[in-house]
Structure formats: C-alpha cells, structure tokens
Design a protein that fits this description.
Blueprint (H helix, E strand, L loop, with lengths): L5 H10 L12 E2 L3 H9 L7 E5 L5 H9 L2 E6 L4 H8 L6 E5 L7 H5 L7 E6 L5 H10 L5 E7 H8 L9 H9 E9 L4 E2 L6 E8 L9 H11 L7 H8 L6 H10 L13 H10 L2
Parallel strand pairs: 2-3, 2-5, 3-4, 5-6
Antiparallel strand pairs: 1-8, 6-9, 7-9
Helix pairs in contact: 2-3, 10-11
S-adenosylmethionine binds next to β1, α3 and β3.
Length: 281
C-alpha cells in the first residue's frame, strides 16, 4: 500500500472516519521521496532498531520497516492504532506503543532491542519539537536522531556562533550531538499542508561531550546569556549572577578570554562558554 499516494490515503482515512487533529500536529506525508530520504539519511539498515515518534498512518514507518531489524513506534492519538494495524500490522518487525513521547520510558522500551544499534526517526509533531528532541537526547538510548522539523528550528539547531539563529538550544544540541541537514522538504509534501517548510536534520549523538564541565552550571550560564538577546553578555550575566560577581569583574573575565566587554551571548561557541564557566565564582 503506497501510503503517500493521495488516492490511497484519502479513502483509507475516510473509511476509518479519521479527521486531522491540528492540536496533535498532524500533517501526514504525501510525497514518497521523503520517507526514503529520512530512512536513508538515518542510515537505517537490517542491523538497526528504530524508535519512531508519531507514525500517523505509517508512511515513514513502512519505509523504516522495509529496511530495519525492528521498528517500535510511539503514537499518542488513540484513533491511529486501528489504521496502523491495517497499514503496517502485517510486518513482523513492527510494534506500537500507545503513549506520549514526552512521558513514555524510552530506556525500558529500548531494552527490548538487546543493546543493538538504535536510532530515532520522526516527522515530528511541531508543537513538541524542542521537548521531543530533548527527551530523545536525554534518554541516552540513541546513536543518532533523524527528525523533520520546521525549517526555522533546523536553522537554530545547525546555527554557527555569531548568527541570528544561534541560541541556547544550538549550544545544547552542540553539547550532545553533531548536527547536519539531511534534506529540505516543501510544505506541499504534506496533507494538510502546513504554513511553513520543513527540514530533516540528523543529530549524531556524542558519546562524551566536547567540553568537560558541570552540565547544570553550564546551561544555567547559557540560559542567562541568552535571556535578553539585545543586551550584552556582561549585562545579562551581571543580572543573573548579581550576588556573586560585579560588572567590572565580569568585564575583566571576558578580556582574559580575548572577548570584548561588548560581546553578546550569540557570539560565544560552546568551548568559550565552558572556558567562561571556569572563571565564574
Ligand atoms: N509520521 C507520520 C507522517 O510522516 O505522515 C505522521 C507525522 S505527524 C507530523 C505527527 C504524528 O505525531 C501524528 O501521528 C500525531 O498523532 C503524533 N503525535 C502528536 N503528539 C504526540 C506525542 N506527544 N507523542 C507521540 N506521538 C504524537
């Protein structure tokens, strides 16, 4: 069954009385080149186990099932298991977990893969893009995470220091993974078509972070640095660390790191943030 063919998809949805839920971020793929690009971009092969977030009716799931050892999909919409059993239920390497990707116990689910290579793939529901990526990373279950996100989010994920897209989430991603763009996807590849274009990004999760420091303290610093984007780093930090350090002490620290006292948070790389952390009280 070609689930990206509109002439297959529409009657299938109609037969099940299915209507799209905007609240659940339901934009289903209707261009068959996209599931192929995601599965290939994720490097899914017969030795790979996959967790898919939000299978919908199974357009991407089907492509993953053809290539992978096992695919376990996590779907929140209680109307979809009946459709999925019709579309992909015949594959013996498929299992479905009914639940919320932000609440399920991923290490417990992935334990069934017996330590084999495990990756995550998804055409993510846009309303939970950032928390879903964070949950996948923090689970420490995946070698890589290949997800379709809004183009603007992809730009933030892959941004370089000194650009307007660079922010706290960029630093967070860079701490945990190496990000790359797999492909761009036009809004016309979905039904219903969303208001924005998308990009598939791949995150190759690092075994160890590129900087050796206390993670909690590092991200407290990063959060403070980006809290008020129009302000200089000194102003942001002198507010966040007001009980600990004066403005002039902060300026001296920046100078000792070859940074101007007028530098802004978006100009510092992850390595510079880690260096800065070592100088703070
Ligand atoms: N994978 C399908 C495709 O590409 O055609 C559907 C993708 S659609 C953008 C997002 C899917 O995620 C929907 O099936 C939706 O019901 C599901 N979903 C929404 N919120 C979810 C959550 N918190 N946990 C798991 N699945 C969720």
């Amino acid at each position: 069954m070609n689930l990206c063919d509109i002439n297959t998809l529409k009657p299938l949805l109609k037969r099940h009385g299915f209507t799209f839920s905007k609240g659940l971020g339901q934009n289903f793929l209707c261009d068959e080149s996209v599931p192929v690009a995601i599965a290939e971009g994720a490097g899914v092969d017969e030795d790979t186990c996959v967790i898919e977030v939000g299978p919908g009716v199974g357009a991407l799931t089907q492509e993953l099932l053809k290539r992978a050892d096992r695919v376990t999909a996590v779907e929140l919409d209680k109307r979809l298991p009946a459709l999925l059993s019709e579309t992909v239920g015949g594959y013996n390497n498929f299992s479905l977990v009914e639940g919320d990707i932000l609440k399920v116990n991923l290490p417990e689910i992935c334990a069934a893969f017996d330590g084999r290579k495990t990756v995550a793939c998804a055409n993510l529901p846009y309303y939970i893009t950032t928390p879903a990526i964070t949950a996948l990373i923090e689970s420490r279950c995946f070698e890589s995470i290949t997800v379709m996100v809004q183009r603007e989010v992809a730009r933030r994920i892959c941004a370089k220091p000194g650009t307007s897209d660079y922010g706290a989430f960029t630093v967070y991603i860079n701490y945990h993974a190496e990000a790359s763009v797999v492909c761009e996807v036009d809004r016309g590849c979905f039904i219903p078509a969303p208001n924005v274009d998308s990009t598939v990004v791949r995150l190759d999760v690092r075994k160890t972070p590129p900087v050796d420091c206390d993670k909690k303290a590092l991200f407290k610093l990063v959060k403070a640095a980006f809290a008020q984007r129009r302000k200089t780093l000194v102003n942001c930090l002198s507010f966040a660390y007001k009980d600990k350090i004066s403005k002039s002490e902060l300026e001296d620290i920046l100078l000792s790191l070859d940074l101007s006292k007028n530098v802004r948070g978006e100009e510092l790389s992850l390595v510079k943030y880690a260096e800065l952390l070592t100088k703070l009280p």
